[in-house]
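Repro:
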Amino acid sequence: MTRIYALASAALIGSLMLGAGVAVYLGQTGDGSADPFAGCRASVVAGGAGAIGGPFTLVDETGQTVTDADVITAPTLLYFGYTFCPDVCPLDTVRNAEAVDILEADGHDVLPVMISVDPLRDTPEVMAAFTANIHERMLGLTGTQEQTDAAARAYRVYFRSNREGDDPYYLVDHTAFTYLVLPEHGFVEFFSRETTPQEMAERTECFVEAGS
């Protein structure tokens, strides 16, 4: 089974603990102002929501270079994983797709995205095949090691490849949060593995409506 790491509660990139626990953040918005999404949050991000997220440059499923501005043009559920993941990533991305369908039925278009933390194996073609099996609108993003590393750092994602030698079956340890990103606001919330599709849809809808 892939090992999943959770971020320690007191710091965004502090010590890492083995397990699938929920990250708990304490604090207020970075500028000390009231949080416009306070009524939607299950947690408050230390240092403000601006402490997570930021620009990235990656490669989409067609091999085209894209930036965060090209991708996040609608509310987006952003997940970091890899296609060879034996259990966690398929379950999480299917859960995200189910939430997207619930939101669509309620009149909200939300984009599910997966960014690879294993660009060595996850070519654009591999990402396209994976996402096509999850949801017709899911977008897979990969890139060079430097590009995917930079995107992971921006979202404070921990990952570590267990590749030894030429072993093609290696696993990658990684955090397993889904990030809600809004075009005009950037990152606004994260969802843990324990969040159900219905809960994710309801909380996402709250953010979307509060930010519109």
